[in-house]
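User: Let's play a game. I give you a shape written as tokens, and you guess the letters that built it. Ready? Here's round one.
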């Protein structure tokens, strides 16, 4: 078996070397020409060789040259006009399902097929994720890149669907290389050192789960940190405290999702979180039968910026709760849905906005984002589907009676000011 593995490795090395010879100069124009060659290639081995060499050559380019290539790929590798035109005419004449399918195939941009063929190369997925990360970095200033980004989103949604994802619990026995990535990728509450990490993954009342994909070995895609508690928490400090008292898991009644971190910028927009939350709830329910309540302790990252746009710079303490409630329930984007990105995520998953907690995050980041406000989103298994459908169909924000009272107070205060 070892010799077979070596022979396979030698073959891959020869394929890559052949491909490098095929490409020539590592410049954007050369890569575009090679992209067209790859699209026209029929040979399995030569196509794999060219794909691997193409990815190596792209990685060797500087940032400006990469951007030049991405621009050309987005605008210059659309559908074949003649083929598409013929397919349109044929469908209009027949209106048949067969010709409709043929039209669909003819309308596919060549850039999408290029990504698909590049993915045949050994170890291609990390390179493709990195390529999309390059694209996203320029997307705001380069609207023409949106077409290529849509190709990536379409394909990644298929390649990273739930059927391919593996849920793993991360603990103190997890390989150090992965633990280091957890420290690096934590995006909500910074992990300061290895002792801090140990408190989050080794204590019996703390859990951490992550999704992995076989094409990105050793790279978490998204992870969630969970605290097992007796009650619904109102602040993050006691959860993260170094000297806190550990709770015996059998006494826990509540599972608190207090940090969710997406790890791969190149996979932005590919939904993992809804699957993650639901599967972790199942895992926790099976492992800890005493659990009755599943909630988050979530930041409100857009509150302070939104309030500033309303001309509110420093709300009085008794006005902060109603202001936060109004923001989370009523403030909408032009395209619909809550302004707050964390709210969109949890409400879209079927959670209910349960409670608004003042002074819950006294860190500099918590104050800068939302004057220290944090909220609990409740995942009630009986209502998740109903809440999800109401949110998806009409943008309805499921919220508790306590939050409803705060929204009413905000309206009354607004009327009084008027």
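Assistant: Ready! My guess for every position:
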């Amino acid at each position: 078996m070892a010799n077979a593995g070596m022979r396979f490795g030698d073959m891959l090395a020869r394929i890559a070397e052949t491909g490098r010879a095929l490409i020539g100069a590592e410049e954007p124009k050369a890569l575009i020409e090679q992209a067209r060659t790859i699209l026209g290639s029929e040979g399995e081995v030569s196509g794999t060789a060219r794909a691997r060499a193409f990815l190596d050559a792209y990685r060797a380019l500087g940032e400006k040259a990469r951007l030049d290539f991405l621009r050309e790929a987005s605008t210059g590798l659309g559908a074949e006009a003649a083929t598409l035109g013929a397919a349109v005419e044929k469908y209009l004449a027949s209106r048949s399902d067969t010709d409709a399918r043929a039209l669909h195939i003819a309308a596919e941009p060549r850039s999408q097929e290029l990504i698909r063929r590049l993915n045949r190369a050994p170890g291609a997925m990390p390179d493709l994720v990195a390529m999309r990360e390059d694209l996203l970095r320029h997307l705001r200033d380069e609207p023409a890149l949106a077409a290529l980004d849509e190709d990536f989103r379409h394909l990644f949604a298929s390649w990273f669907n739930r059927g391919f994802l593996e849920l793993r619990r991360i603990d103190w026995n997890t390989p150090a290389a992965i633990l280091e990535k957890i420290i690096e990728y934590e995006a909500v509450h910074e992990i300061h050192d290895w002792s801090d990490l140990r408190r989050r993954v080794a204590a019996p009342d703390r859990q951490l789960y992550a999704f992995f994909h076989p094409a990105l070995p050793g790279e978490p895609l998204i992870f969630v940190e969970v605290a097992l508690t007796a009650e619904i928490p109102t602040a993050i400090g006691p959860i993260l405290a170094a000297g806190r008292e550990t709770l015996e898991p059998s006494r826990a009644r509540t599972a608190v999702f207090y940090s969710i971190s997406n790890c791969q910028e190149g996979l932005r927009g590919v939904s993992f979180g809804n699957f993650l939350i639901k599967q972790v709830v199942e895992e926790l329910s099976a492992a800890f039968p005493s659990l009755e309540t599943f909630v988050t302790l979530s930041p409100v990252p857009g509150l302070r910026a939104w309030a500033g746009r309303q001309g509110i710079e420093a709300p009085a303490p008794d006005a902060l709760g109603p202001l936060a409630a109004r923001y989370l329930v009523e403030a909408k984007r032009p395209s619909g849905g809550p302004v707050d990105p964390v709210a969109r995520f949890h409400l879209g998953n079927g959670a209910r906005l349960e409670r608004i907690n003042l002074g819950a995050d006294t860190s500099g980041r918590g104050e800068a984002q939302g004057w220290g406000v944090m909220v609990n989103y409740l995942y009630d298994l009986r209502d998740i589907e109903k809440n999800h459908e109401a949110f998806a169909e009409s943008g309805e924000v499921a919220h508790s009676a306590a939050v409803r009272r705060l929204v009413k107070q905000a309206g009354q205060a607004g009327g009084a000011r008027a």
